[in-house]
Amino acid sequence: MAKNSISIIVDAPLATLMQVITDYEAFPEFIPELENIQVKRVNENTNRVTYTVNLIKKITYTVESVVESESRVSWSLVKGDFMKKNQGRWLLESLGDNQTKVIYEIEMTFGMLVPSSLVSTLQERNLPIMMEQFKTRAESLVD
């Protein structure tokens, strides 16, 4: 099991960050590793999102993403290649002056064919890159 948490300060209001985090269809525009995304709306606050990501290997997985409040989005695995668990959350905290603290927490477990050291390496390398991609996207939307 790999568990990780990362935080970053973004020069954009909290509402802008929520817009970026929940606009799943736009992810491929700023996340190059994301080859395909399919979104099925379950209800007002819940979406079933299927990602196809090409990191070291192409992986497809589906999560159920829930907007819990204006500052919190969580997800949990529905099904996935090699994955037994993929859950986490985005936590946003307004710092005023159009700044937002963004915390991303994730916990993943893969099947026996995937070494835990590989999962840890992917998270340690890719999480900071992904956070910068979300930061850049949110800041580009600020007037």
Give an overview in words.
By secondary structure, the protein is of the alpha+beta class. Helix content is 27%, strand content 52%. The chain contains three helices and seven strands. It has a seven-stranded antiparallel β-sheet, with helices on one face. Helix 1 packs across helix 3.
Strand ordering within the main sheet? 1-7-6-5-4-3-2
What separation lies between the terminal Cα atoms? 41 Å
Along the chain, the helix and strand elements come as: EHHEEEEEEH
Counted beta strands? 7
Estimate percent helicity: 25-40%
Oligomeric state of the chains in view: single chain
- Which percent band covers the strand fraction? over 45%
> What is the residue-averaged pLDDT?
90
Radius of gyration: 15 Å
The biggest beta sheet, please? 7 strands, antiparallel
> Which of globular, elongated, flat, extended, rod-shaped describes the shape?
globular
* Number of helices in the DSSP assignment: 3
Extract low-pLDDT stretches: none
Question: What is this structure's SSE topology?
Answer:
Blueprint: E1 2-10, H1 14-22, H2 27-30, E2 34-43, E3 46-54, E4 58-69, E5 72-80, E6 83-96, E7 99-110, H3 116-140
Antiparallel strand pairs: 1-7, 2-3, 3-4, 4-5, 5-6, 6-7
